[in-house]
Every structure is written in C-alpha cells, then in structure tokens.
C-alpha cells in the first residue's frame, strides 16, 4: 500500500490554496479593472504559456458578453490605439515578449492593465493599473515567499482563471447580461 495521499487530498489542498489567494485579491484594484473594461473601446488580452490560455478564456467570455475583445497575436486581431485596453496576465511581470508588447501598447496610447504577482515588475510599471494576485511564480529564483503544494506557476494560473471569471460576473451585473443572452454570441460552427 502506498504512503502517498489520495487524489481527493490533493484536491482539498488546491481548493484551500485557491480560497486563500482569492480572498487576498485587492477589491479596489479589481473594481478599477472592471471600470476600465466597461469604458474601453476595444479590449485586448495577452499572456504567455498557461497564463495566456487563461487570458484567452477571458477574451471569449468578454466577446460573449458583447464586448469587442481580442487575443493579441491572433490573425483576426485588429489594430489597437487610444481608448483601448490591453490586459496582460503575467505572474513575473517580466516575460520578455510581453514586456515588448507593453512598450508597443504605450507607443500606441493603449491603456495597460497588468494582472501579476509582482506589481513592481517591468510590466507593472508600464501599466496604468495593476491587480496583484497572490501566488507563487513558476521560477523559484523570483524569491516569492507564497507557499504552494502545486508545481511551478499553477496556483497563479488557476487564480487568474477564477479572477477573470469573477470579473465576468461583475461585468454581467453592470451590463445586465446573463448566460442565456451570452449564448447568442457562442460559436455555432463547431
């Protein structure tokens, strides 16, 4: 018989970590991002790796809510400019490709919002607003003291997804949307 914990024990530990991280997200920062989204002409999202996948999921929900939302780097993504919002999900805030993207966004007068563990990071400093999400960076050299049983950046990436889902509920409250109305914007060629 193995001395390792069963999978349900791991689920419990993950949920406990998520409860702790979600409770620590600054409400003021989250509400500021909601307001930026509501007033943006177009919303662009970006991230690398698994954080990028979470950002893509958020863009899909924004589009389903009826907002003009795009994933940076996709072939159908339009030009960004003044009045637009770029939301960058990056645990470290130092991912080189995302730093370059933030610099381009600044030149195009796009408002930048960083969702990150490190608001003081390069991307955080280039952003008009930051939302600090607690979590452990994937690289232990980033010297974060946030403990997690999960590998690499898993806790941050899960927190990003749930944070974006929470934002979606706030946006639905502001815009009066519901799942049935959003379904009319769901893909129908799959």
UniProtKB/TrEMBL annotation:
Q: Does the keyword Isomerase apply?
A: yes
The organism is Paenibacillus nicotianae
For the SIS domain, which residue ranges apply? 33-177
Task: Check the record and name the NCBIfam families matching this protein.
Answer: RuMP_HxlB (TIGR03127)
What CDD domains does this protein's entry cite? SIS_PHI
Keyword annotations from UniProtKB, A to Z: Isomerase
Protein name in the entry: 6-phospho-3-hexuloisomerase
Q: Which GO terms describe its molecular function?
A: 6-phospho-3-hexuloisomerase activity
What family does the database annotate?
Belongs to the SIS family. PHI subfamily.
EC numbers, comma separated? 5.3.1.27
Stretches assigned to coiled coil: none
Looking up InterPro entries in the UniProt record yields: PHI/rmpB, SIS_dom, SIS_dom_sf
Q: Which domain of life is it from?
A: Bacteria
């Amino acid at each position: 018989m193995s001395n390792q914990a069963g999978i349900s024990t791991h689920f419990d530990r993950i949920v406990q970590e998520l409860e702790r991280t979600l409770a620590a997200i600054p409400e003021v920062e989250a509400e500021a991002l909601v307001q930026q989204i509501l007033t943006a002409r177009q919303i662009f999202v970006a991230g690398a790796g698994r954080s990028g996948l979470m950002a893509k999921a958020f863009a899909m929900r924004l589009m389903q809510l009826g907002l003009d939302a795009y994933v940076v780097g996709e072939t159908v993504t339009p030009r960004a400019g003044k009045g637009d919002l770029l939301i960058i999900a990056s645990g470290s805030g130092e991912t080189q490709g995302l730093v370059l993207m933030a610099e381009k966004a600044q030149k195009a007068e796009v408002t930048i919002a960083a969702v990150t563990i490190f608001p003081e990071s390069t991307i955080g400093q280039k952003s008009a607003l930051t939302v600090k999400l607690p979590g452990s960076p994937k690289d232990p050299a980033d010297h974060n003291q946030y403990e997690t049983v999960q590998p690499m950046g898993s806790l941050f990436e899960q927190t990003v997804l749930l944070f974006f889902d929470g934002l979606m509920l706030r946006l639905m409250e502001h815009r009066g949307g519901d799942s049935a109305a959003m379904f009319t914007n769901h893909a129908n060629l799959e």
